[in-house]
Amino acid sequence: MSKINNFLKTLRTSIGSTQKYGLVSGNQSGDLDSVICAITYAYFSHQVDPQRPLLPFLNFARADLSARKDIELVFLSNGLDANQLYYVDDLEHLSPNELVLVDHNSPQGKIAELELEVTGIIDHHEDEGLFLNSEPRIIEKTGSCSTLVAKYWLEKGATLDSEVVRLLLAPLVIDTRNLTSRMETQDYEMAKKYASFIPAQDTTTWFTQLQEAKEDISSLTAREILTKDYKFFEFGVGSAEVEKNVGFSSVVKPFEWLLEHHTDFKDQMKKYLSDLSLDILVVMTSFEKNGNFCRQIVFIAKDESDKLLIKLAKDSKLDKELDLEVEKTTESGLTIYNQKNIKASRKQVVPALKQALESL
Q: Is the model's pLDDT at 285 over the cut of 80?
């Protein structure tokens, strides 16, 4: 049995006793980086302090794992038993006493409703200024949050092995486009450490396999596509005491593909907005076309007042910061924007829209 599977089985035994335990949770989008951060943080923590069990929590429903084919590939390639992990479905049966956040720094989704004490944060998104007394509280710019998780625990006395390195390498490779983009000093340092454990690792082949798996959404429904990489936020508007529910869905295919394969995609976006009680839904696409990396963005509003808010936010900040231009308006009235600032991922778009709405 693998070391990590053995560790996960040990955890299940420990929570069957009277021992207290916590959760280490990735963000609501449940992407590869978040999932691997949750697993490896819990694994390293157990190495250093086995008397303080932390359960790796994947912040989405168990059934939604099948839509994340890159994560399934990593699990399969490493022999990791996904049934030993914890999902949103399991919350009703769990009684944790603390929460560690990785790849985000404010609780998201169902787990936020538990109002657990946040005792640790490791993240590479914008600092929301919360839980200032948590330990660790590391929020730094890196290509992959997994870099920060590994670095922190190595400094605490944890040790690497080839099995955990194979897990850690996956999000680093996919988030930095095979170690060529958004690499920071700490990413380079950890990549060098990983290479000593698996020197023969062909990262180019691994990156290609992961990217193909991540982009394989051909079997998904429109709703599954919107849910696959989704995050929810509440944004204030101006000086008024008004909160807007804003959802962000990231998609790995262009809108041309989405509208071709799902002719009712605009209606499905509106239904998704309504079902989730959103005021604004932002759908961001990222893809390659003729060898060039591209981004598109679409805004869906609940009503005319929210349409006006989007227009004001675009005029005041987003058009300039994201370098937006109208790419196409479909016959159904869907406006698709070309985002020429391709460096701005959701990590940058979320705070940009938040600040734009707050400044109105």
A: yes
